[in-house]
Input
Amino acid sequence: MTDTTGTLDEALERLHASGPERDGWLTNHAPMAVEALVRHGQAASVHRWLDHYADKLEEPPPPYAPVTADGWREALGDPARITDWTRFFARELAERPWRGVLAEWWPRLLPGIAAGATHPVIRTGHAVRTLLASPGGDADSGPRLAELAHALGYWAARHQPLPPLAPLAAAPSAAAALDAVPPVPEQDGGIRHRLAQLTAFPAWGDAPDPDTARARLTELVAAATHRYATHGHGEPTMLVHAATAPNAVLRALPALPRVLWAPSLSAAWAASAAVTAAYAPVEAAPYEATSLTPEEVFARAAAHGDDHTIKFTDTALDVGGPLALAAAVRSVELNAPVFR
Output
């Protein structure tokens, strides 16, 4: 959906005075949430939503030293360099088409897809979707290119690969693979503590060609979205990322060279499986079907106001179908509302 109100650009300009995190490492979800709100016809609610979110915004950290094209490896994965990285990508995007910048950096950043609880890749997916939908093509608005710089900068600064993982028995489908993911031994503490315990995942997601990779990535997003309906109660906030992270990768595929689609599938599977291992409950729970339309489901999520609920519902609408809509309604029920 094209934003004809100018609200998205206004919101992004407002947000780019803030950093991507708060309280040390918690993510600023506002750029992703407002993009989803505008996309689904809720532009009129964006500034009210931002007013309520304002207390969670912090200034970006001070710059340390410029990131350079020759010396970027020493800054990769250093969260103290968030501002340096953002400025680096702003320069890159000012000098070259954004698709070229994305294609160069995507394979460099992909191994760190789970960093920042997968929020950097999710923010990148929202930014890419906005640019792909922009009527100006390569002459996209400054705020939208700036948003890509912020997203990639956040990803580069938080970049941290998962530990080495051994393959378990192959699974026949994405749903079966998610069901077979072994939980980490200690399902407590923060996500970094949980991810450090990962040792093995079911083998799934081989793709002999780019089109198969895209089809299997689509399957993974649907399976993770559907699974939330029965397993989201394990950790209602964190488990949304099992679906929204691979969907961010899926959104980026049209802007990437086809040769990158298969490795993108592999990374997306690792991210979704990692979140599942870290937070999935032992047993499934029942859920109720919904008779609401997609528009009604998203309106309910927008009225609820929780950023994770908004973003998960956005992904559920991408998947479509009764079970995905039921999962979105489940996220509204499980997560605490912002607006009462």
User: Anything to note?
Assistant: The radius of gyration is 19 Å.
